[in-house]
Design goal:
- The chain contains ten helices and ten strands.
- The protein is an alpha/beta fold.
- A seven-stranded mixed β-sheet has the order 4-3-6-7-8-9-10. The chain has a three-stranded parallel β-sheet with strand order 1-2-5.
- Strand 3 and strand 4 form a beta hairpin.
- Bound molecules: fe (ii) ion (FE2).
- The site of fe (ii) ion has 5 residues, from loops.
């Protein structure tokens, strides 16, 4: 699996405080079958991450040789990113793809200018991956509000703990609706803490009960995004026909 959203770098944001914490998250990720993980520290007023610090700590995380490749990135605040120049944004490119940006969805309210910001970024050559919109109450109320953004080329990332219900009923229901409406493209951990459950990519895939779709969301799509290639076709939703004469 490829995890494109995590807070694994030590002492940078609200992720682990020290290298021991980084080590533990990476070990948990490896155990779940994650081969590549993008470090996406917050880039916002309360955690104004400097790209040079992120890059240095990514190198340090890789030097731990935990058998998980740590890729660069950043989780960019919608307002904060508007003050960053193209060169800086490219350094925060998700997983090392300089034209792909992970943008944090606010947890309250709905930014009415989100479409304009996305369009402005597209003009500058950037594609947006929207981080965990299923946690936003306005999206939970009306998941279809993401349709225009998706049609404009935005990719939608669901958080593993939303999909499998660890974050409660509403994010789980919104994840389900977004998935059935074709408005979600990838699952990522958004792991902050050194606990196996805080990664949970495999648990989210198990909750889907659809192995081909799970693989698309956790491997095929993130791999294509890293390469900058078109998304592979989404597998048909598996029909669960449990016939009584079959075991
Ligand atoms: Fe995050």
């Amino acid at each position: 699996m490829i995890d494109l959203h995590s807070h694994v770098l030590p002492g940078l944001d609200d992720g682990p405080r020290d290298v021991a914490g980084t080590r533990e998250i990476l070990a948990a990720a490896r155990e779940e079958g994650i081969e590549r993980i993008a470090a996406t520290p917050h880039v916002r007023d309360d955690h104004p991450t400097d790209p040079a610090d992120m890059e240095r700590l990514v190198d340090e995380a890789n030097a731990l040789a935990m058998d998980v490749e740590v890729l660069p990135g950043g989780e960019l605040d919608l307002r904060y990113l508007q003050g960053l120049d193209d060169a800086t944004l490219r350094r925060f490119g998700l997983g090392g793809n300089p034209s792909l940006l992970l943008v944090e969805t606010p947890y309250v309210g709905w930014p009415l200018d989100l479409g304009d910001v996305v369009f402005g970024l597209a003009v500058r050559g950037f594609t947006v991956v929207l981080a965990h919109p299923e946690r936003n109450p306005e999206v939970q109320e009306r998941p279809d509000r993401l349709r225009d953004l998706v049609e404009a080329g935005v990719f939608v990332q669901l958080t593993a703990a939303s999909v499998d219900g660890r974050l409660g009923r509403r994010p789980a229901a919104a994840s389900k609706e977004l998935l059935s409406a074709g408005l979600a493209h990838l699952i990522a951990s958004d792991a902050h803490a050194p606990a196996v459950r805080a990664v949970g990519m495999q648990s989210a895939v198990d909750a889907l009960d659809d192995e081909p779709l799970g693989r698309w969301l956790t491997h095929a799509v993130p791999a294509a995004l890293l390469d900058g290639s078109p998304l592979p076709p989404r597998p048909e939703r598996r029909r669960t026909m449990r016939l009584p004469w079959h075991r």
